[in-house]
């Protein structure tokens, strides 16, 4: 399944389990089924397969960019989440999540290089937050915002080499690792062909 969003300069393709992705009136919606996640436990064997969750991804144009969306999810079970996602290889990808972690809506991140790490940033009042993924060279930055204007720095990291990072797939994901399913919606979607002016000054 392919989708073209007017806000993005690249088409999106569905990966992983079926999610019933749809777009209407500026809102993208996807659904993760029971026990669907994208995670490689750091305590597991390096050969263990990664779990899987529905993703809708596309190849951003070369160069710097920011992908922004306001994310809302019906956070019912622990670790249900709506996610902005970056993929550069089978075991090299990253997630910026609005997640029930484990009982409060929280901005969380996961970076996977063979195994996944897992880190919480800050608790969110309510069931929605703005998320932003940025790239320059092989570096990626994650930010979150409660109003879409002032951005809180979450983390910066590298993923793959510069060639693979430059060909990264970026987009959207829903997950429900231990629950019965999670609907995630993404609106106020925007794309900017720039790196943020400052990572820690709110811009």
> How widely separated are the two ends?
35 Å
CATH architecture: Sandwich
Task: Please give the share of residues in helix.
Answer: under 10%
Low-confidence stretches: none
Strand content range: over 45%
Main sheet overview: 9 strands, antiparallel
Query: What is the count of DSSP helices, taking H or I runs of 4+ residues?
Result: 1
> Which series of helices and strands comes N to C?
EEEEEEEEEEEEEEHEE
Q: What structural class do helix, strand and pairing data support?
A: mainly beta
CATH class: Mainly Beta
CA radius of gyration is 15 Å
Average pLDDT: 94
- What best-fitting shape do the alpha-carbon axes yield? globular
Number of domains: 1
According to CATH, the fold-level topology is: Jelly Rolls
The count of strands amounts to: 16
Secondary structure blueprint with pairings:
Blueprint: E1 2-3, E2 12-15, E3 22-24, E4 27-32, E5 55-59, E6 65-73, E7 81-89, E8 92-100, E9 105-113, E10 115-116, E11 119-123, E12 128-136, E13 139-145, E14 152-158, H1 162-166, E15 169-175, E16 182-192
Antiparallel strand pairs: 1-2, 2-5, 3-4, 4-16, 5-15, 6-12, 6-16, 7-8, 7-15, 8-9, 9-10, 9-11, 12-13, 13-14
Organism: Streptomyces ficellus
Pfam families: DUF1349 (PF07081)
Protein name: DUF1349 domain-containing protein
Task: Give your account of this protein's structure.
By secondary structure, this protein is mainly β. It is 2% helix and 51% strand. The strands form 2 sheets. Strands 1, 2, 5, 7, 8, 9, 10, 11 and 15 form a 9-stranded antiparallel sheet that branches.
């Amino acid at each position: 399944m392919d989708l073209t969003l007017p806000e993005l300069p690249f088409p999106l393709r569905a990966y992983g389990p079926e999610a019933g992705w749809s777009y209407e009136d500026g809102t993208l919606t996807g659904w993760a089924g029971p026990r669907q996640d994208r995670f490689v436990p750091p305590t597991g064997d390096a050969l263990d397969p990664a779990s899987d969750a529905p993703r809708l991804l596309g190849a951003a144009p070369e160069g710097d960019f920011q992908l922004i969306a306001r994310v809302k999810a019906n956070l019912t079970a622990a670790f249900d989440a709506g996610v902005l996602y970056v993929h550069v290889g089978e075991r090299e990808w990253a997630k910026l999540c609005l997640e029930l972690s484990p009982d409060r809506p929280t901005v969380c991140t996961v970076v996977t290089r063979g195994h996944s790490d897992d880190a919480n940033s800050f608790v969110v009042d309510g069931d929605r937050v703005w998320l932003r993924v940025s790239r320059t060279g092989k570096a990626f930055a994650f930010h979150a915002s409660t109003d879409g204007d002032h951005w809180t720095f979450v983390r910066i990291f590298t993923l793959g080499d510069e060639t693979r990072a430059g060909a990264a797939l970026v987009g959207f994901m829903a997950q429900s690792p231990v629950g019965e399913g999670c609907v995630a919606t993404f609106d106020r979607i925007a794309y900017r062909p720039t790196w943020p002016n400052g990572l820690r000054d709110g811009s």
